[in-house]
Amino acid sequence: MSTTTEFDTIAAVATPPGEGGISIIRVSGEDAISIVEKVYRGKDLAKVASHTINYGHIIEPKTKDEVDEVMVSVMRAPKTYTKEDVVEVNCHGGLVATNEILQLILSNGARMAEPGEFTKRAFLNGRLDLSQAEAVMDLIRAKTDKSMKVALNQLDGSLSRLIKNLRQDILEVLAQVEVNIDYPEYDDVETLTTKLLREKATEVRQSIERLLKTAKQGKVLRDGLATAIVGRPNVGKSSLLNHLLHEDKAIVTDVAGTTRDVIEEFVNVRGVPLKLVDTAGIRDTEDKVEKIGVERSRKAINTADLVLVVINASEPLTDEDRNLLDITDDDKRLIILNKTDLERKVSNEDLADWAKPEDIIGTSVLTNQGLDQLEERIASLFFDEGIESNQNSVMVTNARHIGLLNQANDALGDVLHGIAAGMPVDLVQIDMTRCWNLLGEITGDSYQDELLDQLFSQFCVGK
Amino acid sequence: MTGVKAYSGEEYDVIVVGAGHAGSEAALAAARMGNKTLLMTINLDMVAFMPCNPSVGGPAKGIVVREIDALGGEMGRNIDKTYVQMRMLNTGKGPAVRALRAQADKHAYHAEMKNTIENEPNLTLRQGIVDELIVEDGECRGVITNTGAKYHAKAVVVSSGTAARGKIIIGELMYSSGPNNSQPAMKLSENLKDLGLNLVRFKTGTPPRVDGTTINYDETEEQPGDEDVNHFSFESSDEDYLSLKNQLSCWLTYTNETTHKIIRDNLDRAPMFSGVIEGVGPRYCPSIEDKIVRFADKKRHQLFLEPEGRHTKEWYVQGLSTSMPEEIQQKILHSIKGLENAEMMRPGYAIEYDVVSPYQLKPTLETKLIKNLYTAGQTNGTSGYEEAAGQGLIAGINAGLRALDKGQFTLKRSEAYIGVMIDDLVTKGTNEPYRLLTSRAEYRLILRHDNADMRLTEKGYDLGLISDDRLAKFEAKKQAVETELERLNSVRVKPSAEVNAFVESHNEKALKDGVLAAEFLRRPLVSYNDLLKFIPASAEPLDRRVVEQVEVRIKYAGYIKKAEANVARMKKMEDKKIPDRIDYDAIDGLATEAHQKLNKIRPVTIAQATRISGVNPADIAILTVYIEQGKIAKIAN
Questions:
Q1: Choosing a second label site near A215 at 20 to 30 A (CA), which of A31, B180, B214, B498?
Q2: Which of B413, B449, B625 to mutate to test the interface with A (most CBs of A within 10 A)?
Q3: What is the pTM of this model?
Q4: If contacts are CB pairs under 8 Å, which of residues 132-191 in chain A contact chain B?
């Protein structure tokens, strides 16, 4: 039986997908406020006045890591679009952050909204009149086919197979528990102990956690490998970016500090989707506008999957260069010795402490020297050494799937917790069944009768 | 009708056709609600007869018996008066799946129920075969018997069981018969078909019975009853419990390779496989030949030898249901340890019978097609005495309410196993005889045997089936539970040496600070009685049933709370009613399959609609919008 219902709290991205600007994630339903509260740090949303906007951060509730800086609007029923409690999270746009926030909200109790569902609720709760209602019917009708297709496309064959296998594993366990309950005197059916159940739950949990790890890799393929280009002012970062983009996007001048905004661009480098983040030069600055840029560069380094450190080969290494190399030491990093067309003041050996020889690449953006080598190195890093990606594994990329997997994972956590607390097997099994149902929602087959079919085909029971 | 002259019989409020386990409950309920009721049976000596296993209860079923009792039904009281063995199953598991089962003296069970029915004011028990229903203007108004009597009534319950065009099969032998060689009802089925109801054919079976004096018990294992007191009825008194020495034991033995060879060698004579049997049999109650074929690698199958009563030598061989020829049945029996010299008293047989496909019923068990006509029990495709009795009670209540011109009564899936069963039947239908299993209930932690009275007594009272006296006792119990729960949530267990010695002897962490008694009780190995050693006793000594409630509600509070949250979530959908006369053809955009299924099943609530396979969330969305639209625009539907 599907656990999704008409009255769940639902969530979806309310703004059209795309880069830049601001994204809004809308959450509607009885638990909207309490769910967002779980992933929000700032004022207590349960207590803020209705129809207010509140500044704060979205956090990953377990690790307390900050995910994004956000503004959260809280609108209490009934004066809202859906006539239910509505919370809107305004975040920094960009697929990555938006999806991450949505996933967190889905993992914490909301369900992904169906197409047109906010509007449908508005209608069901008496917010719309008949003509608007007709429009809603059309919307649902039109979007049903499309969304079904989309959902099917999102469900990659190998993922679906994997989930089905997991469900079958769980089903066999469930059938055994059930048969123990309904036929307690049949001694030829092995009694499923909590020990066996724990082993099974742990096993399934490992698979789900592996899958959830791929969620990040999937994200890379879809959203690009976040790549930060950093370096002192005027070492040629913008020129490098322009080269990779094959167009003039960033403002390039000889005056240090003219690239003030973080520009995000997608570029395909030999099959690797890079999301390039050109940054304002990293340096101590008193300039107010510039300072924001510098802070954001530091942030860019922190969130980047790959950092390209650009150093001016025609000037000796400065403290700033060294500082930059030090703070990027733990990152996946390539060092680009630019301006090799000029007299070299920095040799590859000078950088040996910071990087392997193949990760130090001499270039001249001006004369196009070394740029092929750079692109090749990026591709080999991604494909051969695998920056957060593994082409052969099953990947989860869909926010709804990730949300369900997270919930399934939590259910297994409850199974293990119950076993540790000494609960009898038939109680612990309730959470195991929940996990099975949640996984079924991913593949679209949650059907109670499966269990009975399994039970009667697996065991010979009956009077 | 040839030769038989019709005559006008008496008028009744409610007529029940068939006096098996469904019919007995239906008739008693209707009569107790104040309706002048007629109970018709083909044979007065087969009222509440047990044609198959001599037992009542077990997993899920035992909970149904308690539910029947809490609603004012008879089954629980009747078995408590006539059991020969009582046993609580699944004691090592959680509270939701513990199940009481009794071995019945099947003759005493029948006699006791018949006596109760005979002594019920308002209720007339009469022998006769109902051939036809009186149906006018789409309403059922009575029945016509084969003796020509026309009885009129405001509502009719049909619970004809396997008598409905019953056919017994033993090997090559085949003949029309009701259960246990009783007379079958041949005409009623035809009449139901003519009235437009869709009938299907099901099959069930029963094992041979043997003379208990010819069993060699030394070759078998004893399965005694329980020393600990337990009854089905919340009204039965602990003092009446049979001591172990007054209970009868069952005995366990096994089939073996020889048995299996005999069966395999004679499969060509097995009606199950020769194509003779067309009815669909239950998977959970397979015949022995079915087990051997489907689970070919199993070396042995368990068989339980069960006494059929105190004053008979007949023993029931549970696990050996078969329709093999009599000769083969004997060989099978003699191949089994302990039964080498057993004398077969009755052969096992398969029986085919007619079933009213249950999708044609409302959750009240009234047929959608014919007003005031209700069906219950095996007629609706279920199997088992308890399932039958549960439906009989609901059908009888609703027929009674109809006769009284009152609103109908249903139970939700979150209220009772009876609710789960009826919802399954009318929403999903069934393509094999339906048996209740704990796994069918999504809220089984709420549907426990220990709290059946908490769930249903008040409903029974409102229906007029529970006396004032019983309600008062129930309320006292409820109060006692609440008081003790409150107390345990305020009294503290101190970390004394005594307490910690106890805790450590159970391999648990010692207490550093005092804890609430309730919290202490939550530890898996601490029982209520253990707890009492460390806190003052309650003001008055508590009844064991009160203690059971307190213990379960404290120990499993976390899980119960979760289940209750799920129920609350579902409740909103349960509350969304679908208008009776909704025209699914007028709704654009429903998927074809959903459209067909909705039209066929005609769910009563949105929640029920979501449970229909093939109706997906988008269809539900369109349906809810459509219903709401009707409300706003006042569209005639």
A1: A31
A2: B625
A3: 0.79
A4: 133, 136-137, 140-141, 144, 148, 174, 178, 180-188
**B381 located within any domain:** no
Taking an 8 Å cut-off on Cβ atoms, the answer to whether A114 and B618 are in contact is yes
Both B222 and B240 in one domain: the answer is yes
- CA-based nearest residue to B288, from B337, B351, B348, B345: B348
Contact between residue B578 and residue B603 where contact means Cβ atoms under 8 Å apart: yes
Between the CA of residue B11 and those of B139, B155, B395, B568, what are the distances in Å?
A: 16, 11, 20, 45
Q: Would you say the ipTM is above 0.90?
A: no
Is A448 touching B (CB cutoff 8 A)? yes
Residue B256 at interface with chain A, using a CB cutoff of 8 Å: no
State the alpha helices, DSSP H only, in A233-338.
237-245, 288-303, 319-327
Asked if residue B330 belongs to a domain, the reply is yes
The domain in which residue B541 lies consists of 468-570
Q: What is the pLDDT along chain A (463 residues), one digit of tens a residue?
A: 333 456 789 998 877 654 456 788 999 999 999 999 999 999 999 999 999 999 999 998 888 888 888 999 999 988 888 889 999 999 876 666 777 888 889 888 888 887 667 877 777 777 766 666 666 666 555 544 444 444 444 455 677 788 888 999 998 888 888 888 888 887 666 667 778 889 999 999 999 988 887 665 555 555 567 788 888 877 887 778 777 766 444 433 344 444 434 445 566 676 566 777 654 443 344 444 445 455 666 777 777 778 888 889 888 888 888 888 888 887 888 999 988 888 888 888 888 888 888 888 888 877 888 888 888 888 777 655 554 433 334 556 566 778 888 889 999 999 999 998 888 888 888 899 889 988 887 776 655 556 666 666 666 655 4
Phi and psi angles of residue B286, each rounded to the nearest 5 degrees, phi first: -75, 155
Is any Cβ of chain A less than 8 angstroms from the Cβ of B577?
no
Asked whether residue A253 is marked as a ligand-binding residue, the answer is yes
**Residue B593 maps to a domain:** yes
Query: In angstroms, rounded to a whole number, what is the distance separating the alpha carbons of residues B66 and A122?
Result: 44
Q: Is cis: bond before B358, omega within 30 of 0?
A: no
| Assigned domain for B376 exists | no
How far is it, in rounded angstroms, from Cα A61 to Cα B24? 59
Please tell me whether A281 is known to bind a ligand. Answer: yes
Nearest to B53 among A136, A184, A463 (CB): A463
